[in-house]
Design goal:
It holds the Pfam family AlkZ-like. By secondary structure, this protein is of the alpha+beta class. The protein has a domain at about 90-210. About 45% of the residues lie in helices and about 15% in strands. The strands form five sheets. The protein has a four-stranded antiparallel β-sheet. It has a three-stranded mixed β-sheet with strand order 1-10-11, with no helix packed on it. Strands 2-4-3 form a three-stranded antiparallel β-sheet, with helices on both faces.
Length: about 400
């Protein structure tokens, strides 16, 4: 069995994820393909993840890809998480992940409707929800593009409210507007478009999928799509344990194994732990370490969020860099390892804290990278959606 050392995995990470100086991408589309999908729960992550990977990238260039050329698309998919994917990946992601999430969420919403004692039999609740979706789509087709509030003005049933977690301190009532729009997007009927406000805004506009993207998001057989998604993940994140694939996809282990069977991966030894990688000639042997590199990655960046088992690049630094729910904050990387964190202060300055000694030369490169992010963000102030202990401390 072939052995892949931790050093080799770190070298692969730098090259494959476009983080070394010589591997940086020339387009935002190529950079996104290199990590399969960009995390987009926090809108700023998309932009800062691309800033770290693409030569001469600008905010306007990223917006052009998202909203004018429409070569990148926002989709809710794996683990009910919002991502940005290359538009040609939309059919794969839709069939492999979004469709199943939609089914799960629909069952959850119908149960919540029952728990709220809505005066409707179970079959009628499902029909009512489907009719609300149909009315919302008619309103969106008439407008062409709209916010949730605008659609609720046209389809008043979107104003219906449900009590959430009534026995909890964080409980309360919630309109079903976001439910319906998320279900419709998970089913591939509508997509998120340009937000109101700046590039860090989360107030999305919506459009019918087949008017925003030619042919809509497409449709593929589920088993074929799952195998293709795992193949793409292994190309970007392999070699890795099977449990990492299970975590990233959010699938049951049986579905992961079925997809792997279709691919026929090579089994490898990851410093004593079993792992898999794509079969065939290795086009990126990474037997030699790449040139020294530094990267400042944002909270929820796809690289640290790509694996469940992170000790080989995270080391002992989880405590200050993750929130209580397992969301990673802004990180400083040196040659394939996380060595610190960073934050943007109120005056716009990006400040860093190294959690280990990286040497004077690397420390100077970190400061240069921080100054680069300060200049790139300009007047925009970025506060991560999920704040971590170190990020809070740096901005106190």
């Amino acid at each position: 069995m072939r052995r892949i050392s931790t050093a080799e995995r770190r070298a692969r990470l730098g090259r494959l994820h476009r983080l070394t100086a010589t591997s940086r991408a020339s387009t935002v589309e190529d950079a996104t393909r290199s990590v399969v999908a960009l995390h987009a729960t926090d809108p700023a992550t998309v932009y800062l993840s691309l800033q770290a990977r693409v030569r001469d990238v600008t905010v306007s260039g990223i917006e052009r890809a998202l909203y004018d050329d429409r070569t990148l698309l926002r989709m809710m998919a794996m683990r009910r998480t919002l991502f940005v994917v290359p538009v040609e990946s939309a059919p794969v992601v839709q069939a492999a992940a979004s469709r199943a999430v939609a089914a799960t969420q629909r069952r959850r919403y119908l149960k919540l409707m029952a728990d709220n004692h809505l005066d409707l039999p179970a079959s009628d609740r499902a029909e009512w929800l489907a009719d609300v979706e149909a009315g919302t789509l008619r309103a969106l087709l008439a407008r062409g593009e709209a916010t949730g509030a605008e659609l609720a003005a046209d389809e008043p049933r979107l104003h219906a409210t449900i009590s959430m977690a009534a026995d909890k301190s964080y409980g309360g009532t919630q309109k079903i507007t976001s439910w319906v729009l998320n279900l419709m997007s998970l089913d591939g009927h509508i997509v998120r478009t340009r937000p109101r406000g700046s590039w860090i805004s989360q107030q999305w506009r919506w459009a019918p999928a087949d008017t925003w993207v030619r042919g809509g998001v497409g449709d593929l057989p589920v088993e074929d799509a799952r195998a293709e998604l795992v193949r793409r993940w292994l190309a970007a994140f392999g070699p890795a344990p099977v449990t990492d694939i299970k975590w990233w996809t959010g699938w049951p282990l049986g579905q992961v194994r079925a997809a792997l069977t279709a691919i026929g991966p090579e089994e490898v030894d990851l410093d004593g732990a079993p792992g898999v990688m794509l079969p065939g000639p290795d086009t990126d042997t990474a037997t030699d370490a790449p040139e020294p590199w530094i990267a400042l990655l944002p909270g929820l960046d796809p690289t640290p969020m790509g694996w469940a088992e992170r000790s080989w690049f995270l080391g002992p630094h989880a405590g200050p860099l993750f929130d209580r729910n397992g969301n990673i904050g802004p990180t400083v990387w040196c040659d394939g390892r996380i060595v610190g964190g960073w934050a943007q202060r109120r005056d716009g300055e990006v400040v860093v804290r190294l959690l280990e000694d990286v040497g004077a030369e690397a420390a100077a490169a970190v400061e240069t990278a921080a100054a680069g992010v300060t200049a790139w963000t300009g007047p925009v102030r970025v506060t991560p959606r999920f704040r971590t202990p170190l990020e809070k401390e740096l901005t106190a």
